[in-house]
Design goal:
Blueprint (H helix, E strand, L loop, with lengths): L1 E4 L3 E4 L5 E3 L12 E6 L7 E5 L6 E5 L1 H4 L9 H5 L9 E10 L2 E4 L5 E4 L4 E4 L10 E2 L5 H8 L7
Antiparallel strand pairs: 1-2, 3-4, 4-5, 5-6, 6-7, 7-8, 7-9, 8-11, 9-10
């Protein structure tokens, strides 16, 4: 599959690179096929690129890299869509955006990815975590990589 993207130019993706999000993502429910791409300039960041919309790419981080005590509590009904087995390798990632404080991440609605099954979903945590948690100790290169690509939040 070939896709023209705003961020990465032309990408050639095969099925093994795609993840199915059966319910889509919040605000993008109709977009179900996504590629998880590394950011070669900054290993702290990955990108979730829509396979059907070249203008949709989300910067992601592992929240535990910035918040070691981060734990997400997810309702079982949300986990069933990932077909999780006891030995499943699940990635927990959170989206990045920018506001007047700098970079912030959404700890309340993480993205879960089952690597083995190539399935993903975005969930709302059962705990009262912040939607816009500042990343206070982010590195300068993380800032420059992300801030240049993000619209300012109101």
């Amino acid at each position: 599959m070939r896709i023209q993207t705003q961020r990465f130019g032309t990408l050639v993706l095969d099925q093994e690179q795609l993840f199915l999000f059966p319910q889509g993502l919040f605000g993008m429910e109709s977009l179900r096929d996504w590629a998880l791409l590394p950011d070669f300039e900054n290993p702290s960041v990955a990108w979730l690129q829509s396979a059907s919309r070249g203008d949709r790419a989300l910067p992601l981080i592992s929240p535990r890299a910035f918040f070691p005590d981060y734990r997400v509590q997810v309702p079982n009904r949300d986990l069933t869509s990932l077909h999780i087995k006891p030995d499943a390798e699940i990635y927990v990632l959170t989206t990045l955006s920018a506001d007047s404080r700098g970079l912030v991440t959404n700890l309340r609605a993480p993205i879960l990815i089952n690597l083995g099954r190539r399935l993903g979903c975005q969930v709302v945590s059962e705990t009262d975590l912040p939607i816009r948690q500042p990343i206070g100790h982010s590195e300068a290169d993380l800032q420059s990589t992300i801030l240049s690509a993000l619209p300012k939040a109101a």
